[in-house]
Amino acid sequence: MAQRLIVIGGDAAGMAAASQARRRRGRDDLEIVAFERGHFTSYSACGIPYWISGTVPERDDLIIRSPATFREEHQIDVRVRTEVTGIDLDRREVVARDLERGGELRERFDTLVYATGAVPTRPDWARDEVAGVFGVQTLDDGAAVRAWLDGEPKPRRAVVVGGGYIGVEMAEALVQRGLSVTLVEHAEQPMSTVDPDMATLVATAMRDVGIEIRTGVEVTGVEQRDGRVAAVVTADGPVPADLVVLGLGVRPNTALAAAAGLPLGPTGAVRVDRRMRVPEVPDVWAAGDCVQTLHRVSGMAVHVPLGTHANKQGRVVGINIGGGYATFPGVIGTAVTKVCDLEVGRTGLRERDATAAGFEFVSVIAESTSRAGYYPGACPMTVKLIAERPTGRLLGAQIVGRSEAAKRIDALAVALWNGMTVDDMTALDLGYAPPYAPVWDPMLIAARKAVDALAR
Ligand SMILES: Cc1cc2nc3c(=O)[nH]c(=O)nc-3n(C[C@H](O)[C@H](O)[C@H](O)COP(=O)(O)OP(=O)(O)OC[C@H]3O[C@@H](n4cnc5c(N)ncnc54)[C@H](O)[C@@H]3O)c2cc1C
Q: What is the rounded (10 degree) CA torsion for 236, 49, 147, 241?
C-alpha cells in the first residue's frame, strides 16, 4: 500500500516539498495530499505590491502552479479552502475543516509536512475589520486592496503603517497608483533591515518621490466616517487616510504546531534539524516562514521569513522524504528591495546584530558610482562593509544605489558565505567595462577602505 504524505500549507515551502517528493516517488509508492485554506497554491506573495501598482497586470501572473496543475500533472491531491485545525500525533491524523461546505474531516498520514507560513502582526487597534484597512499577505488581500483602489469613492490619501520592506514596497505601489502617501513608522528610520546611516538614503529617496515619512510615531487607532476609514490616530494627531495598509512584520504561524506539541525554538518558530526534520517527532518535517534557522555569521537561531528560504527548505524536505539526502545550511540574511528607482541590498549582520553577537568590528562607507563616471547613466552608489576586528572577516554588507545596484550584493554575499576577509576581497577579479562599473569597482573601493580602517 502507498504511504501517505500530508502537507499543511499550499504555497512556497509546502508545494516545493510536495513536488520534490513526487519527482522521486511515484503515485503507487507515495500518496500526497496538500491542504490549503486559501484559494490558491504556489503563488508569489512577493509580487503582490507590483500587481497592486499595475506593473504586473494580472493576478494570475503571480500564480506559478494552480491546484488543477498539481492534481493533473503532478498527481498531488490539493484541497484548497480546507483548513487544518488540529494535528493528532498519536493517531497520526490531521483534523481539517471544509471552509466552503462546512464539516470536519480526519485524514491519516504516515509523513507530515508543516508549512503554514507566517501570520502578519496586527495591533489591537486593527483587530476589528474596518473598511479600507488592509494587510498584504495573500492574493486575496491584494485583490481586496485593488478593489478598494478601483471602487467608489476613489481613495486619494493612503497611510502605510510600518516601514519594513513590505511597507516601503506598498508605499511605492500606491504612489504609482496616483495616491498621496504617508508612511508612519515608530522607529527613527524606515527600512530597519539596514543600518540607520543607509536607511537615511532610503528615506531621502522616498521623500523625493513625494512619500511623506513620519518616524518615531506610533499609530494607536483608526477613525471612521460613514463606515470607512478616515484617518489613523497617532500621538501627534490624526493622519487623514482613505486607505490604510499594514506592514508591521510577521510572526511564525505556529498555533497548530504548539497545540500538537511540536518543539518551538527561542524565536517562537518551529525547531528543525539540518535536514528540516522536527526533532524527536518521527516523520514530521517543517519548512518556510514557520521555522527558525541558523544564522551562519552570528551562529544564532533566527526567524527570517523570506520566499527564497521557503523554496529551498521545501525542496530539502521533499528530497529527504523522497529517499535522498539534503540539508539546509542556514542563512546569512541576504535581501534586496527597491523603492521607485532606488535599490537596497543587504547581507550578513547590521552593526547592531554584530554588537549583539559579541563581535568587535569596524564599519566603513564608500561612495562610488554604478558605471565609469564619464559614461552616460552613471549614478551614485553607497557601499557599507562591516568587518571583524582584528581578523578582517567580512560580517555584513549593505548597498544603496540605482541601476542594478541591489543585485551587486550577491557578490558580497558569496564573499561573506565563504568567510572571506576584506583583505582577500581587495584583489577580487570583478568584471570591469565603463557601462558596468568604474575601473575600481565599488566593492573593491569599500574593501580597501575597510582594510585601512582595520589598520588604524
Ligand atoms: C507582500 C509580500 C512581499 C514579499 N516579498 C518578498 C521578496 O521580495 N523576497 C522574498 O524572499 N520573500 C518575500 N516575501 C516573503 C515570501 O512571500 C514568504 O517568505 C513565502 O511566501 C513563505 O512561504 P511559505 O510557504 O513558508 O509560507 P506562505 O507563503 O505564507 O504559505 C503558507 C500557506 O499555508 C496556508 N495555511 C496556513 N495555515 C493553514 C492551515 N491551518 N490549514 C491549511 N492551510 C494553511 C496559508 O494559507 C498559506 O497559503 C514577501 C511576502 C509578502 C507578503
A: 10
